[in-house]
Amino acid sequence: MRLDKYLSLCGKATRTETARAVRGGEVLINGVPARRADSPVEPETDAVILRGEPVVYRAFTYILLHKPDGVVSATEDRLHGEKTVLELLPPEMTRLRPALFPCGRLDKHTTGLVLLTNNGPLAHRLLAPTRHVEKTYTFTVKFPLSAEDTAALEAGLDIGGYTTAPCRVETDPAPEQGPRSGRITLHEGKYHQIKRMMEARHNQIISLCRVSFGPLTLGDDLPSGAWRYATEAEIQALEAYGS
């Protein structure tokens, strides 16, 4: 395996970053400075060190991305030609094999945390309805939410042939007319679910942002449109969550 692919799979560096690190003498293979970004590496036997830190080999890649408004959670959009989440990554990341894909989807106008990975079995487990993976969103609605609205949302309500499971709603402090923003935590993910839940209470979503998915949280270090590799702790938490 090429060194640049190895570091990319391990979530340590893109191809461009690997080339820069090699030029700076920051990569060792079995104690010897790597001379080229495409130097061969045996993942199971070679010891690779990047900037003084051992690199633990992983067969899969995990990326956290902050999806902006108007971007599609898909690998491609042949029908409408919309920009996809994969187009926010460097070109070499889209050529990884197995290929990266979004683990779950956000609506086109919903922003926030998206997990990109090429670990199909783990993604399948995380998305299975029986797993009840927790997802939290911040929201803004057109009209103030009453106490009755909040109670109905939390208890579950009919959104057109389907009754939603109980959820948790935390509204922000607001003037006397009532709150128009807050956080909602679900354990399911039906099509346009939160939008349909609000419509069932004669309200309308103005903005929606996913701030957590299972053990992953959208931090201030990830502005809209940005991405980063998952940390070792986050990967371990994902694998434990999906075991």
CATH-derived architecture of the largest domain = 2-Layer Sandwich
**Strand coverage percent:** 15-25%
CATH top level of the largest domain is: Alpha Beta
How much helicity do the residues have?
A: 10-25%
Observed structural traits:
Alpha-Beta Plaits, Structural Genomics Hypothetical 15.5 Kd Protein In mrcA-pckA Intergenic Region, Chain A, alpha+beta, 9-stranded mixed beta sheet, 4-stranded antiparallel beta sheet, 243 residues
Description of the structure:
This protein has 243 residues and is α+β, with helices and mostly antiparallel strands. It has three domains: 3-54, Structural Genomics Hypothetical 15.5 Kd Protein In mrcA-pckA Intergenic Region, Chain A (Roll), CATH 3.10.290.10; 62-129 and 215-241, Pseudouridine synthase I, catalytic domain, N-terminal subdomain (Alpha-Beta Plaits); 134-213, Alpha-Beta Plaits, CATH 3.30.70.1560. Helices cover 21% and strands 23% of the residues. The strands form two sheets. Strands 5, 6, 7, 8, 9, 10, 11, 12 and 13 form a nine-stranded mixed beta sheet that branches. A four-stranded antiparallel beta sheet has the order 2-1-3-4. A hairpin with a 2-residue loop joins strand 1 and strand 2. The longest helix has 10 residues, at 232-241. It is elongated. The two termini are 28 Å apart. 32% of the residues are buried. The model has no long low-confidence stretch (mean pLDDT 93).
Quick synopsis:
Helix content is 21%, strand content 23%. The chain is an alpha+beta fold.
Can you lay out the helices and strands and say which pair or pack?
Layout: H1 3-9, H2 15-23, E1 27-29, E2 32-33, E3 48-50, E4 53-54, E5 62-67, E6 101-102, E7 111-117, H3 120-127, E8 135-141, H4 147-155, E9 168-171, E10 181-186, H5 193-200, E11 205-213, E12 216-217, E13 227-229, H6 232-241
Parallel strand pairs: 7-11
Antiparallel strand pairs: 1-2, 1-3, 3-4, 5-7, 5-13, 6-7, 8-10, 8-11, 9-10, 11-12
